[in-house]
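REQUEST FORM: STRUCTURE PREDICTION
Request ID: SP-0412
Submitted by: Lab K.M.
Chain count: 1
Length (residues): 298
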Amino acid sequence: MEKNNDLENLPVVSICCTTFNHASYIKDCLDGILMQETTFDFEVLIYDDASTDGTSEIIEAYQEKYPKKIFPICSKENNFSKGVRGMSFVYNIPRAKGKYLALCEGDDYWTAKDKLQRQVEFMEKNPDIVFTFHNFRRKEGDSLKNPFLYPPSFNKDVYVLKFKEAFNTQIQPLTMLFRKVISKPKELNVLNGDALLIALLLEKGKGAFLNFTGAVYRIHDGGIHAGKHKYTRISNSIASREKMLKYFDYPVKGELYLKLAHYYKRLAKLDFKRGHFFKGMNHLNWLLKYSFYYITRK
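STATUS: Completed
RESULT:
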C-alpha cells in the first residue's frame, strides 16, 4: 500500500504570528521561532496588518530566505482599525496545516530552543491534554524581569490545572501549544482574545503547565493593552466577556459570570476611590447580578 506523501509532508506545528508596526521587534520574534530544534516540521504563518514602519519588508526578507517555512500575508489595509479582532483566528488558524498550534505576536519572542519539542512530546503522550503552557519573563524597555511567580503547586515538572483554576491563572498565549480543535464564532469580535482562546480550549479538555521558562512578553507603548489605564483594561475585559456569554454553556459560562463579578468589583473600588459614587453603586449592582446568575445558573 502506497503512503500518502501529502500527509507525510504536513507540518506538526503551525506557528501563528500577528504583527503591526513591530519593526523594532519582529527579528527577535522570527529568530526565536526559527531557532527551534525539533524532530518534526513546523510552519510559520504571519499576518501583518498593514504595517507602515518597515515590518513588512523585514518579513519579506525572512520569507525569501525561508520560502518553505514562512508564509506571510501582508495586508494592504489595517483591519484592526475596521473593527476586526482576533487576527490569528481570522487570518492564520484557518490556513494552518499542523496538528498543533502555537502563538507568538510580533513584539514577543521565544528563548528556549526546545520549547516546541518539549510541548509536542508531552502532548503526544497525553491525549487528554488540550493545551500546555510554560513560564515566561516580562520585558519593559531594556529591563528583563524575573520569571513569572506561579503558585507553589506549580513547582513540579508538570502540573495539570483544575477547571476553575485555569480561569484564574496567568496563561500567556505566547507560551501555549494547543491542539487544532477550536474555531472562533464568526460574528464574535472581542479585544481580549486571550480570554476567548482559553474558554474555547477548556470546552474541549484540560490544560497543563510545563515547568520551564521559554519566552519573553514585551511591554511597550505600542501594545494593544500596554500603556492603557487600569480602568480601561478592566472595562475591556468586561466588554469581551459580556460578548462571550451567549456563545458558551456551563461550566464555562459560570466561570465567565464569576470573572465578570470580579471585574465589576474592581471597577467599583476604583470608582469610589475617585469619588464617583453613582458609577460605583451601579458597578456593585452588576457584581450582584452576575453573582446571582452564577448561583442560579441563569
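NOTES: Residues 230-296 form one domain.
Reviewed by: T.R.
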